[in-house]
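Service request form, structural biology core

Requester: graduate student, group of Dr. S.
Request type: structure prediction, single chain
Budget code: on file
Notes: please return the result as structure tokens.

Sequence provided:
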Amino acid sequence: MARIDFIQKLHTKTSRNYVQRVVEHDKAECATIARQFGRDYWDGERQYGYGGYRYDGRWNPIAAEMAAHYGLKPGMKVLDVGCGKGFLLHELTQVVPGLIVAGLDISQYGIDNAKEEVRPFLVQGSADRLPFEAGEFDFVVSLGTLHNLALPAASAAFREIERVGRGGKYVMIESFRDEREKANLLYWQLTCQSFHDPDSWEWLATQAGYTGDIGFIYFE
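Core staff response, request fulfilled:
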């Protein structure tokens, strides 16, 4: 299992006031609303989630880097587990025309408001029960999703990603390297169910039989 970072540079472009997140609004209420993964989470006020998640091309460089690293070619099948509005999948089809893409997300709202070019290829569902055949995909990616599951479901999700992938696999998770980053994550997060350092996440993935790559983002 290789530890690879594709995302941290994009992640750090967003400015976050961690303490304000806790004191300005009722954090428990905001988290309860966010975990519905509906309009409030994606396109409502910032205290409930993204504060408006719109296509702006930010995922294109990441898609290009992933495609090059995993050797994606036209005709290959790619699955995004936790695809949200499908922006990464769309960018992958732009950097590698001819890719066959599929996406799954827990949020029906996210799918209904996904990039229209990939919307027909997205399905609603949970990462721990993927409705796909064993070995169906040449590349499986999951960004910022597995930490939103309780530990048994996160373990099952690693197993499912391993099951449906016959080639490269990459999972990115929110994590922490020290107490400051741990506190920042706890202050900022709205939907996390599992909080672990990178070594613990890698242990969980290994125990689940996952053989792909893994990456983390940190709240510095």
